[in-house]
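User: Quick sanity check before I run a bigger batch. Here is a single chain. Can you write out its predicted 3D structure?
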Amino acid sequence: MIEAPSQWIRNYVDGSFVEPDPDRAFDAVDPVTGRAYARVHEADHDLVDRAVTSARAALADGWAARPVSDRAAILRRAADLIEERFDEFVAAELADTGKPITQARTLDIARAPANFRAFADMVSTAGQESFRTETADGGAALNYTVRKPLGVVAVIVPWNLPLLLLTWKVAPALACGNAVVVKPSEDTPGGASLLAEVLEQAGLPHGVYNVVHGFGADSAGAFLTGHPAIDGVTFTGSSATGTRVMQTVAPRVRPVSLELGGKNAAVVFDDVDVAEAVNGLSRSIFTNTGQVCLCTERVYIQRNVFDEVASGLVGAAEQLVLGRPTDESTTTGPLISAKHRDKVQRYLDLAVEEGANVLTGGGTPDLGGELAGGSWISPTLWTGLTNEARVMREEVFGPVAGLVPFDTEEEAVALANDTEYGLASAVWTNDLRRGHRVAEQMNVGLSWVNTWYLRDLRSPFGGMGLSGIGREGGQSSLHFYTEPTNVCVQL
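Assistant: Done. Predicted structure follows.
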């Protein structure tokens, strides 16, 4: 069991929490105060090897051959148990991330059981392709596909939505009969270990779910992705780290699913309902303190409504409430760490150097008291920059956006697509034909019209360019976590 705060967060291998080594540990830091709330046992190479070996043994012991109905039942039981321990998961999320309790309750923790149930349903109803083939001699053959588990999957999840993205990957992997070794972010270790308790209670066999804590290079992340017995890697995080993951697995030609960074654009046309657009944009810019890969960092606004939309966004930004996560009035938490706060602040300073006109924010607020040590940043909007500026091309991953006017639809599409990333976009217009037309021209994996972050878990999720490779969600997840074998029978 995970002990009280300021105690140990342990690795979980082969159905047991591992006794920590005090000489190989690091602090879990509360980003609200900057204080350590727990010690985390960093897995060494031998412990990662034990985790992979236990996962391989679990597959050989029959987990991969279990009926789909059995695996789906365990996933549904896990969903029930998360709901029974809902407050514990909320507390772990707040300790890890400092995000407002209202968001943790309604988004992060609520999505975890939804992910388990959705993939339990999907795997239970999934069909397979079959073809009747006419042969040259006038006969026929039957071709049909059998899908088998990929094997041992390395699951590497980021710190921004730790439990949501963990269950988004683990649920379909387990549903398809794989065993997993999870490497949470070193900044958010709590939820993955708590999930281990739930999965064991749900009846998951030992070795099917393992957790190893640590860092990337020269630590658990590198040890895991470089392990020769790993059959595939699913990773969400930065584009730079995703590149290293691909390089690591390339010599062994293992499949990867990479959901990486974004420099997402929103396009606002002058026929829009301005209040509706401002409300949607304020969500897409500032949700989770801008620490969502889908957040908007570039907003292109048709000139006729530029001032009105900009004024509305400034008003929305200045109404945000930074504060303790347990306060129901808090809308905005800190950034995940002092290191990340410093990175975001460097970009805000760079925007000014590049000629930005800062409309609001731009600095680090002093909240006083115990919050003074937190990783706070002010929600920030600027104008006056073009796509040539670095801050308009590089992902900041904070509550920031540049606002740029445009005149024509063709110009807006060109501006939005002028990026090496390709994760998400949002188009705001009351012209239905224009909404369809422009959304389909966006070079992204997800293109919203008059909304943002509205997801159907059956639909494909992923990006283009520096935003990643592969898709997860729905059948895309079931296909990634399985290998197809075509069976051809001469009739």
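Confidence is low (pLDDT under 50) at residues 1-5.

User: Great, the batch can go ahead then.
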